Amino acid sequence: MSRPPQPTPAQQVRFAVGTAIGIAVLVLAEVTLVAFLPTRWAVPDLVTVAVLAVAHHRGPVAGGLTGAWAGAMLDLVPPAGGPLGAWMLVLGSVAAVHGRVVATRRPGPLLSLVLLALAAAAACAAHAGLLWFVGVPVAAPAVARAVLASGLWALLLAPLALLARPRRRSRRRPRRGPLHREDAVSRSVPASVTAGGLTAAHASRPTGGQR
Amino acid sequence: MSARTARGVLAAVLAVAAMLLLLEVRGAGPGDALRGLAGAVAGPPERAVAWLRQSAADRFTGAAEERARAEALERELAEARAAAGAAALGVADERHAQALAQALTLTGYRPVTARVVARTVPQDLLGALAVSAGSRHGVAAGMAAVGLSGVVGFVDTVSPGVSTLRLTTDPATRLAVRVLPSGELGVVRGTGSEARLTLLDPLGAMTVTDRVVTVGTADGLVPADLLVGTVTAIDGSAADLSRAASVEPATDASTLDRVAVLVPAGVS
Fold first, then answer.
1. Under an 8 A CB cutoff, do B122 and A65 touch?
2. CB contact under 8 A, A79 and B120
3. CA distance B166 to B123
4. B154, β-bridge pairs
5. Which of A34, A171, B106, B266 is least crowded, fewest Cβ atoms below 10 Å from its Cβ?
6. What is the DSSP track for B146-211?
7. What is the pLDDT of residues B113-143, one digit of tens each?
8. Of B21, B123, B191, the CB nearest to A42
9. Which residue does chain B place closest to A64, by CA atoms?
10. pTM of the full predicted structure?
């Protein structure tokens, strides 16, 4: 079995720079546009969903680093007002854990949506917990409302973030490397049941009517 | 970069985040400096997006002319109030209006009008706005910002063209206030979704519909008698030491478009 080629340093840099710019644009869009939507209690949290989507597609390390970058932006870009490092720590950690869970469990499409929504709600809850831990008194009803809203909005946005990926996969060979998913399945399962091999194996397998 | 190195980088980044958080809690973090720098970088695009957003809204609603007329009227109103010594908007009542006008005439405040360019999302649990006035307009940390109905919040961090306002509902807000008409002193704290009032005297008089105004600060950054909000509900009785009241902010920040930052006289 031949291993897929490692991404070149140039590809890694291109991915990192592209993701960093994309996240920066999303953060600006979130505070300058999305936050002005006339929904009183909650608006779509594009940044969290994007970070979790990166963790889903690219694995825990890339997801964690993307989450840390996004969190740093949220901690710094006006009108940031919370303790510095709170979002950075929360998004980095939650994205890394989410990426690890997805890489090891390999959930189906429906479970992926639910996992992403749960991770978004967990990020909101973890941020509230961190605020409480450092002495910022957030009210429990406000936290409950925010956690619920985060989860529901993430559930609505998750298909856009997750379902766009398979088309790209079909055009490209699966890649490996530190900024890509550590494919636990490919280490333990023969290539015949992975993406391209599955079709080939089934096509060549004789059926009952062909004996 | 190997997978092990990448994991090490991630661990280091998360450790840096935790260290920044601890430093911030101890009050020794580089938060203000970094946020000032971030404001200087992100401020211009935020202002540009805010302008585009407003232009698109005006085009969509056909309200550009009405808005221009309203802006002109707001400017005239602010100038008239400043000239009359009542630059602080949202005066509690006539009795205090006279005292306020006198006080502001003596001390003097210059309202710097600014557009709301960004705000935190509700899930953030921290109520804050970014407005298009900064250090080059004379704005400094601690100054009060008012809307047409009363206090909006207080300046937290400042960069050359953009400032961050901490709203009265922000959980980190602590504000000394006076309750009218009783005159009782108290403290307003944000909870993330509302403001809670606790009186210094647990037996002090307080009823629903009482108005809550600022006490003012000794350094003159916040004038006295600015309307903060109205008492809407009281939890507990007068004999209850944990009695607290819900305060509805005078200004609804979720629909706010413009604010005036009160810059004390003498600050250029």
1. no
2. yes
3. 16
4. B144, B166
5. A171
6. E-SSSEEEEEEEE-SS-EEEEETTSTT-EEEEEEETTTEEEEEEE-SSSEEEEESSTT----TT-E
7. 888 999 888 878 888 899 999 999 889 998 9
8. B123
9. B10
10. 0.77
Angle between helices A140-162 and A109-133 (to 10 degrees): 150
pLDDT averaged over chain A?
78
Residue range B53-96, pLDDT digits in tens:
888 877 776 666 666 677 766 666 665 555 444 444 444 444 44
Average pLDDT rounded to a whole number, residues B244-265: 85
A6 class by beta-carbon count within 10 Å (0-12 exposed, 13-18 middle, 19+ buried): middle
Nearest-angstrom CA–CA distance, A55 and A179: 10
Greater pLDDT, B82 or B219: B219
Measuring CA to CA, how many Å separate A64 from each of A169, A178, B85? 22, 12, 54
* Cis before A7 (ω within 30): no
**Predicted confidence (pLDDT) at residue A60 exceeds the cutoff of 60:** yes
The partner residue sitting opposite B128, judged by closest CB among A45, A72, A79, is: A79
Of A143, A150, A178, the CB nearest to B6: A178
Could you write out the DSSP letters of every residue in A12-29?
HHHHHHHHHHHHHHHHHH
Indicate the average pLDDT of chain B.
80
